[in-house]
Amino acid sequence: MKQSKSNCAWIGQLQTILLALAAASSCALQSRAGTDNALFNIKAEDVIASVHMDNVHFNTAAQTASKFHAERERLGADLLNTFNNQKSSRANQCIAAYYLGEMRYSSAADSLAVDIKVNLGDSDILIQGLPVILAYPARDALVKIGAASIPAVIRNLTESDDALVRALSFDVLTHVDGDKDIAGLRLQKALNAEKDSHKQARIQLALKELKK
Questions:
Q1: DSSP readout, 21-68?
Q2: Residues 113 and 195 in one domain
Q3: In-domain check, residue 92
Q4: Does this model's pTM top 0.70?
Q5: Residues 121 and 179 in one domain
Q6: pLDDT 10s per residue in the chain (212 long)?
Q7: 134 and 209 co-located in one domain
Q8: Among candidate residues 172, 97, 173, the one with its CA nearest the CA of residue 137
Q9: Is there a contact between 112 and 149 (Cβ–Cβ < 8 Å)?
Q10: Would residue 10 count as lying in a domain?
């Protein structure tokens, strides 16, 4: 049963990545026409088939894995570029943040933390009942990315006086570990390493919040 659940989770993540690859491919057709930029072309059936090959075909499976990894990295970079692009709409940023979180794309942690407040407004929600992209997708993506997000959100708690930035960063810190004691140790370590008195005060505020 555990193996079955693990397989379902793996397939779910694969489907998310492949869906994002397909979306990126569609965008490439529209926005990159006339360029020599190769389109995303990994197929779900290729990946599934590769895990069922016998040893005789291991080289073929390895090639599929290499291609999958390369396209995943290219997809992550493309989504991150969309998130960081000042010309991107708020809705585009939120959708990019959602996929970056689903991919657990750790390279996006710093950017997501910088724009942790990005959110969908009522005018952006065109599809009724879209529960997968919640109010603050950058915050949610950072939680999914996990431990790699911790330095970025602690930096927010150290440097920002924006109440919402701090609240969202605090959410990430506590949800990633799921343990206030661990979160406290992380903040205490940051406090011990910090020399600036103003930054120390901000960290102490976060430590105080943990005790509530």
A1: HHHHHHHHHHHSTTS-PPPP---HHHHHHHTT--GGGHHHHHHHHHHH
A2: yes
A3: no
A4: yes
A5: yes
A6: 444 555 555 555 555 555 555 554 444 433 333 333 455 677 788 888 888 877 656 777 788 888 888 888 999 999 999 999 999 988 899 999 999 999 999 999 999 999 999 987 765 555 555 556 778 999 999 999 999 999 999 999 999 999 999 999 999 999 998 999 999 999 999 999 999 999 999 999 999 999 88
A7: yes
A8: 97
A9: yes
A10: yes
Measured CA to CA, the distance from residue 44 to residue 108 in angstroms comes to 25
Residue written as tokens 């694969």?
14
Does residue 22 fall inside a structural domain?
Answer: yes
Structural domain boundaries enclosing 196: 107-212
> Could you tell me if 78 and 111 lie in one domain?
no
Cα–Cα distance measured from residue 118 to residue 136, given in angstroms and rounded to the nearest whole number? 6
With respect to residue 90, please indicate whether it lies within any of the assigned structural domains: no
Whether residue 80 sits in one domain with residue 111: no
Cα angle value 143/200/149 (rounded, 5°): 15
